[in-house]
Amino acid sequence: MKKWTAALSMFAVITSATAAMADITIGVTIATTGPAASLGIPEKNGLEFAPKTIAGQKVKFVVYDDASDTTTAVQNTKRLISESNVDLIIGPSTTPNALAMVDLATEAKTPMISLASGKPIVVPIEKRKWIFKMTANDEIAVGAMVNHMVKSGVKTVAAIATDDPYGEAKIKPFNELTAKHGIKVLMIEKFKKTDTSATAQILKIMSAKPDAVFVVAAGTPSAMPHTALFERGYKGKVYQSDGAANSDFLRVGGKALEGGLVSASPVLVAEQLPKGYPNREEALKFAKAYESKFGPRSTFGSHMWDALKLVETAVPKALKKGKPGTVEFREALRDAIETAHVKGAYAVFNFSPTDHSGVDVTGIAMLKIVNGKWKLEDYAKFK
Amino acid sequence: MDSTIFLLLAQDALTNGAIYILLALATILIFGVTRIIFIPQGEFVAFGALTLATLQMGEVPGTVWLVVALAVVAAIMEAYRLLRMGVSREIPAAVARTLAPPLVVSGIAYVCAPLNLNLGWQVLLTVMLVTTLGPLVYRVAFRPIADTSVLNLLIAAVAVHFALVGLALLFFGAEGFRTPAFSEAQIPLGVLTVSGQSIWVYVMSIAFIGLLAYFFGRTMYGKALRAVAFNRNGARLVGISPSLAGTLAFALAALIGCLSGILIGPITTIYYDSGFLIGLKGFASAIVGGLASYPMAAGGALLVGITESYSSFWLSAYKDVVVFTLIIPVLLWLSLRSVHFEEEE
Questions:
Q1: Does residue A10 belong to any structural domain of this protein?
Q2: In what order do the strands lie in the sheet with A112-114?
Q3: Which tens digit of pLDDT belongs to each residue from B218-269?
Q4: How far, in Å, CA of B16 to CA of B14, rounded?
Q5: Among A129, B61, B201, B277, which residue's Cβ finds the most Cβ atoms within 10 Å?
Q6: SS3 readout for B11-77
């Protein structure tokens, strides 16, 4: 009996060892349940398009759900590193979870491709050698909006933001960029996503008569202040942040959102982009593939799509320098990602040793809500 | 602030206040009858609005399965209780009594959900489903510990709150919903525009207060509830069953919560976790009424609504701080004013 189990475990060791030698293992931890599930589910959908092999090597995916919870995200990361000996981590979906994971990934010398957007995930760069992200930095998203304000002659603006890190992250570049362009910020009001009414804040904003109002909230909570502005008959421009750009937002807000402006990835309006726009082709490809399987396209789905494309670009280079499962391979993979240029669906990524986000101004366009759909309003100059 | 804004804020305060009145009434009712500080009152609000939203989409709401699951658990608990009391021949009847109403209600909801009935019927279905939830929650979570201390009951209430919020997330997802308004009418009234929906809120709120006053003042069951609230042991001595009173109180509280949810669903976006803060404001109003006086609680609810509305205008970042700080002077005043005596547990 003892011999038998010993033989079996030997066999297990050998097979797992050979598997580790041959296959590339990619760990994924995203929020497919919990409050951030509206991000994690389309990301998981994007995983359906994962390649089975890259450069002749088999690719194995180990996928965990972090339930939108920071502790679980950390546990998942530890398991991916120590149990599965992954070569790369994709995820998580949200900024707080990403910040909790960066040190673990750095310590284990495992490259991590975050799908969350917060700038501190990849800054300061000397502490984030192993960390990359597939999203535009806040100042690019807010910058596109402020440029639009300048173009349309907005002189005064008021903001209403959620009382959370998301709101803070947007308000900071908003204050800096408006000051730079001579736009006066009249006031910054706060609300909570669980509030039953934003009427009072909107009344205060409207009594100051701003040319435009900037609503800062992620997902459906962005609809409430917008609806209140509509109900009170506000005539100026209403801007929404990139976190609002999903189909649930359009569903909840309904006709109150008509004419609203959102800074978001051009992937949502791929068909309307001019020929030659940097990510037009890939965005159309993604939209076609995603919508034939899962319904309306989602920017979160495109993050996963692009992360996979980045992996496909980087792995062949890294394979020349080491075998999967070794630290040499992971180092080579990191170096390959850091110099990668990828035409993604969400944006075009030009990674460099000083920029681990790699998204430039073409990664965000201004969209307008017309008849409950996204319409391309303005886009950055491109080469 | 000019007079127009003053009036608009007052209008907003009144609409929210009307909802807080309903929730404060439910909180006092449950505390009086069962001594439970019922934290999850707000969850009935969220379940009400979200169940209706799910029915609107022609899908079967998760509430149906929750009702079925709780009914099965309740039936098992009932059978076990009777078995231990040594009256096993009563088990089939008791199990049937526990299972039948929830199963019938959830069965109807299951069949009707994909039919895309008109709004009125969907509201009725929602009200039936969520109201059934109340007594089941009482049977499963509170009745076995009904005679323990207020603190134990409070801890159980907190547990129920977390369980219901988690289940709501599972059933309805993380995104919010808005339900269609009962009335799209807009009535101009001087500088104000009163929406049909807010008139519904006022009318329902007043109607419910009247209905509760009638129920407690004129009907036998209402008087029995008051008797239990006044003196549990005394009520028991004259033949009123505290557990029946508890069941009734929870059914009423769930009904009130569900109606509040349906009423505010079209005014605001409701999320799986929206209920907690709304319920907490109802609770703060009930505190103003000393968890005993219905009229004082109604005044408290209006006070909370007004404070909330005006503090959102002046200090939006500290709105909830202002609202909940309001409780402290009230508590201080209440504790100075009232003569203390230790209640025997």
A1: yes
A2: A53-54, A57-65, A24-30, A88-90, A112-114, A131-133
A3: 999 888 888 888 888 888 898 888 888 999 999 999 999 999 999 998 888 8
A4: 6
A5: B61
A6: HHHHHHHHHHHHHHHHHHHHHHHHCCCCCCHHHHHHHHHHHHHHHHCCCCCHHHHHHHHHHHHHHHH
**Domain end call among A264, A296, A331:** A264
Residue A115, in any domain of the structure:
yes
Instruction: Please check whether residues A258 and A288 belong to one and the same domain.
Output: no
Is-contact B187 B199, C-beta < 8 A?
yes
Specify whether the CB–CB gap between A131 and A125 falls below 8 A: no
For A98-121, give the DSSP string.
Answer: HHHHHHHHHHTT--EEE----GGG
Is B174 close to A223, i.e. CB distance below 8 A?
Answer: no
Residues A9 and A131 in one domain: yes
Query: Where is average pLDDT lowest: A10-24, A144-158, A269-283, A327-341?
Result: A10-24
Mutation pick from A196, A220, A298, A300 vs chain B, by most beta carbons of B within 10 Å, is A196
Read off the tokens for A254. Answer: 């309904």
Output the CA–CA distances (angstroms, integers) from residue A292 to A217, A302, B299, in the order listed.
Answer: 30, 14, 56
Give chain A's radius of gyration (CA, Å). 22
Q: Give the residue on A whose Cα is nearest the Cα of B194.
A: A231
> Any CB–CB contact under 8 A between A191 and chain B?
yes
Test B268 with A189 for CB contact under 8 angstroms.
Answer: no
Q: A168: domain range?
A: 138-264
Q: Pick from A264, A297, A326: which residue ends a domain?
A: A264
Q: How far is CA B122 from CA A253, A355, B212, B301, in A?
A: 22, 54, 24, 29
Question: What is the residue type of A94?
Answer: T
Tens digits of residue pLDDT in B270-280: 988 889 999 99
* Together in a domain, A44 and A78: yes
Q: Closest to A194 (Cβ–Cβ): which among B170, B264, B273?
A: B273
Place of tokens 């009001």: A189
Nearest residue in A to B176, CA atom: A220
Same domain, A127 and A33: yes
The reply to whether A58 and A68 lie within a common domain is yes
Write b or e for each residue in B92-107: b if 16 or more Cβ atoms lie within 10 A of its Cβ, otherwise e.
eeebeebbeebbebbe
The count of other CB atoms within 10 Å of the CB of residue B208 is 20
Query: Mind telling me how many Å the CA of B135 is from chain A's nearest CA?
Result: 27
